[in-house]
Design goal:
Helix content: over 70%
CATH architecture: Orthogonal Bundle
CATH superfamily: lambda repressor-like DNA-binding domains
CATH topology: 434 Repressor (Amino-terminal Domain)
Number of strands: 0
Structural class: mainly alpha
Order of helices and strands: HHHHHH
CATH class: Mainly Alpha
Distance between the termini: 19 Å
Shape: globular
Length: about 90
């Protein structure tokens, strides 16, 4: 996966977590202190999420960081190993 694809996958997971928590951008912004525009940028995969931001979002949305980041997804692991030199 490219970095852009990874960003979009994290954004998709952020949207899913918000839906599961029955939370819109406005409420997430109010609870975290981030702007709705920043949250939208993360959802679109256009902005980098830093470790502290990941922690705040995961705590607020009751998700584990490894879930939000997609750790353990076979597609990511397979993609990475296919690019490694042999």
């Amino acid at each position: 996966m490219t970095e852009a694809e990874i960003g979009r996958e994290i954004g998709r997971r952020l949207q899913q977590a918000m839906q599961e928590a029955d939370m819109d951008r406005g409420e997430l912004a109010r609870l975290t202190g981030y702007t709705e525009q920043q949250i939208d940028s993360w959802e679109q995969g256009c902005a980098v999420l830093y470790p502290g931001e990941i922690m705040v979002l995961c705590h607020t949305l009751d998700k584990m960081p490894h879930w939000l980041l997609g750790w353990g997804l076979r597609d990511w692991r397979r993609s990475r190993t296919s690019r490694e030199p042999r």
